[in-house]
Amino acid sequence: MELNNRFGHRAGAFVQGALNDHITAEKLIDQHSAFPYFASLVTDEVATRWRAALIEGHPDAFRRYLPATRHGLRSIHALRHCPDCQQSDIERYGLAHWHVVHQLPGIRFCPEHNHRLHDRCRSCKTPLGGKSKAILPGEACQRCGSHDTDSSLSKHPSRGYQSLADLICRTLQRQAPEAAPTVRHRLLKHLISTAGVGPVELVDRFLTWWSVETLTQLGDMLQSPIDAPSLQQLMLEGHAKVSTPLMLAVIAFAWAHTSDADRSLLLQGDIAESDLFSSVHTDTEPPDDVLNQLMALARQLHLPSRAAVLLSQGDRASTTDLIGRTNVLLLIEGVSERARGFLAQRIREHQNAV
Predict the structure, then answer these.
(1) Minimum mean pLDDT among 31-45, 70-84, 171-185, 242-256: which range?
(2) What whole-number distance in Å separates Cα of residue 138 and Cα of residue 97?
(3) Mean pLDDT computed over every residue of the chain
(4) What is the pTM of this model?
(5) What is the DSSP string of 65-120?
(6) What is the pLDDT of residues 81-139, one digit of tens each?
(7) Which residues have C-beta within 8 Å of that of residue 65, sequence separation ≥ 6?
(8) How far apart are CA 85 and CA 304, in angstroms?
(9) Whose CA is closest to 191, among 243, 252, 246?
(10) Phi-psi category of residue 196: left, alpha or beta, with phi > 0 → left and psi -120 to 50 → alpha
(11) What sign has the CA pseudo-torsion 174, 176, 178, 184?
(12) Do 62 and 7 touch, CB atoms closer than 8 A?
């Protein structure tokens, strides 16, 4: 299994062929891959299906279950390690290994030792791991043979970084409830309603929180390009097509600016799916492009066009049977506010008719 295989694809075959079943495929994915980080943004139901597809080696497992937040991810060009973790690994296991948390987008400091991660050879500045990345921490540089490493990463963690790093570590421990679909939607709506400013000003506050001046600088830190209109849409409507690193950064921002009392209210009980339709104007006249919006989203999410047609007709039950509850939520989240108002009305009318 290659190091670029961040999700443990074909984990079932790997544990049987390479590990002699000394670990379960589920444990391999949950504890030794980036799967929990990305799965924090989907429901438990979808995470279970996604994990099963990865274990079986389904060819479409990666994009099928998390397409909406795959956008903007960059390939790994350099591996990162903590010298203290390296020494601890050697003392415990006899050799060092790459830690999952150190490789996740945006992580620049070791969560355990708070030291800046090393990502290159000190002598020749070659990124750690080389082209094949088939070496372990502490082994000689494939270019110059040196064992010394240093860091090209920024030195000073901002408030934004510290909050995001905390959230990322909790996603790996499956203790980040604020990232779940319905909770994060309500959380972002709460941020927008209490901020008292428009989306442009809210983006400026977000950048200040990260101690950067431009989206390009923030994108470099998150290892993900940032599209200004998409981020402004997220700060205006609470949903937009953005990368996983940026979505988690905004969630961390919203969570840090929410009081403990309001956090408890946001997390209490099962949050109704009808929250997706809160504060939207219902309209019996369809927006001209509502079906076009749904069809475009279906193509982006690799969903059948039939799902877009059924949902535009208000038949949410049949749409859910066809593509699953979370994919329906992704379609609803992805359309304009006016289109959501129309869909709310059509769904109610269809339910009453049935």
Answers:
(1) 70-84
(2) 9
(3) 85
(4) 0.77
(5) HSGGGTTTPPPP-S--B-HHHHHHHHHHHSS----HHHHSTT--B-TTT-PBPB-E
(6) 999 999 999 999 999 999 999 999 999 999 999 999 999 999 999 999 766 556 899 99
(7) 42, 46, 49, 50, 53
(8) 46
(9) 252
(10) left
(11) negative
(12) yes
Total Cβ atoms within 10 A of residue 351:
12
Q: Which residue's entry shows tokens 């939207």?
A: 280
DSSP H stretches of helix in the chain: 11-17, 25-32, 35-39, 44-56, 61-65, 83-93, 100-103, 159-172, 181-195, 199-209, 215-222, 228-237, 244-256, 260-267, 290-300, 305-312, 316-323, 325-334, 337-353
Contact 266, 273 (CB under 8 A): no
Label the pairing between strands 149-150 and 120-121: antiparallel
What type of residue sits at position 164?
Answer: L
Q: Which amino acid is it at 80?
A: R
Q: Say how far residue 341 (Cα) sits from the centre of its chain.
A: 27
* Higher-confidence position of 110 and 41: 110
Sorted by sequence, the CB contacts under 8 Å of residue 81 that are 6+ apart come out as 96, 98, 99, 102, 117, 118, 128, 137, 149
Q: Which residue has the higher pLDDT, 43 or 27?
A: 27
C-alpha distances in Å from residue 161, one per residue of 166, 223, 253:
8, 13, 10
Question: CA neighbours within 13 Å on the CB side: how many for 75?
Answer: 5
pLDDT in tens, 157-207: 899 999 999 999 999 999 999 998 878 888 998 999 999 999 999 999 999
